[in-house]
Amino acid sequence: MFTLPAVDDSEVWVALSSQQMEHEIGLAGRIEPFETSVLNAPFEGMVMAHELSPGMPVEEGQALLSFDTALLEIKVRDALANKLKQQQVVESFRTWTNGPDVARARRSLRVAELAMQNLDLELSQVETLYQKGIVPRNERDSLKHQRYLQALELTAATSELETVQAAGKGEARTIAEMELHNASIIHEQLNALLAHKTLYAPYSGVVLSLGSPQPVSGEAVTLHKGALFTMGQQVIKLANMSGLRVVTQVSESDVSKFSLNQEVRITAEGFPAALSGYISAVSQLAVPDQNEGSAARFPLTITVNQPASGDFKLIRLGMSAQMTIVTYRNDNSFIVPHAAIEKEGDSLFVEYREGPDAPAVRRAVTLGQSTAEGVEVFGVESGYVRVK
After folding, report:
1. How, if at all, do strands 375-378 and 320-336 pair?
2. 61 and 132 housed in the same domain
3. Cα separation, 16 vs 31, whole angstroms
4. Domain containing 56 — which CATH number?
5. Dihedral angle sign, alpha carbons of residues 125, 131, 135, 139
6. Spatial contact of 24 and 325, defined as CB atoms under 8 Å apart
7. Which positions are tagged coiled coil (predicted)?
8. Which of 21, 151, 179, 371 qualifies as a cystine partner to 333, CB 3.0-4.6 A?
């Protein structure tokens, strides 16, 4: 800084004092629920009578509608029958060593062994008589052939017993146990669905729609008594009224002015009083626009704070809302006329006095936001600046 030479009385000096400066942007949008939930059919069944309608308020835990369980009960009984069948199979493997198959194989082996013993005894006697010349040779050879055949039967009976015994310990038993486990799980799951035959409101809110929307192929299902819904098909769509939000769009030239948690003032003709909120989301993706060459627009989500009354009962979904967002605020701002700014090279200056009788000095400044009255500058305090 340096002191300027004396100036004449024709110079204009403007008083400079601290003031609050705000820049606001106005937006318009509509009230939406902070959260929506879809209640799906817990199982295949027909709807019983209900008294719901779109826009109807519901309370947390309120019974909304019930499903007829006739079709589900058929599936539960079929699953139980399959489970019992698998239990019988597994039980037969647990008592396999004393079971009928093993007993039958043991009897066959025992019969073959006794027959073999009888043939061995008879052949021994015939061999003695043959050596003494009492019986002919063909009788002895016939017994030998019978013994050979019986030996084959004895081997087959032994192998069959081993095979039957192994069947109760191998993969067949493992498969039966796994099938029983699967059948038990299916039965438990189907039986548990019976407890969900009535749909309850998960929170206090508003009914948005009833029935399933139009699918890509097929027809939409309307909600009425006797309507058949498949498992997982949409039945009711609810809005959670414990919180609200406003979704709007901003142009690409303004989107950089918004950031998370910026305060928002929300007003509307239908509101009993102004509401406050904050920016909770600024989309990074522009909204698709069919008009080529038009400026991109980005969705902006504002979360509405709880009103002083503690609830949103007086605010209805779909109401239009006007929002005022402070994009810039400085409580200690100094604004000077544009004509007070001097430029030399890349630097900006103002001629400044701390008081009416103080000497004038040259101060370097940096510019902030522009207003209708002038421009915000940094680098000066309360005092006076010269305007050419």
Report:
1. antiparallel
2. no
3. 43
4. 2.40.50.100
5. positive
6. yes
7. 102-129
8. 21
pLDDT of 328 above 90: no
Residue 387 host element (H or E): strand 383-387
What are 67-83's pLDDT values in tens digits?
Answer: 999 999 999 999 999 99
- How far, in Å, CA of 65 to CA of 39, rounded? 11
Could you tell me the two tokens for 3?
Answer: 């002191």
Q: If you average pLDDT over every residue of the chain, what do you get?
A: 86
- Which pair of structure tokens corresponds to residue 253? 């030239």
86: amino acid identity, one letter: Q
d(CA 273, CA 305): 13
For residue 151, what is the enclosing H or E element?
helix 137-167
| Burial grade of 25 (CB within 10 A; 0-12, 13-18, 19 or more) | middle
What is the Cα–Cα distance from 307 to 380, expressed in whole angstroms? 41
Confidence band, pLDDT 50/70/90 cuts, at residue 61: very high
Residues 209 and 108 in one domain: no
Q: Is the pTM of this model over 0.85?
A: no
Residue 130 lies in a domain: yes
Residue 256 contacts residue 249 (beta carbons within 8 Å): no
Please state, in angstroms and rounded to a whole number, the distance separating the CA atoms of residues 165 and 312. 74
- Residue 252's contacts (CB-CB under 8 Å, 6 or more residues apart) are 286, 295, 296, 297, 298
Hunting for tokens 């090279």 — which residue is that?
Answer: 345
Tokens of 192: 């548990």
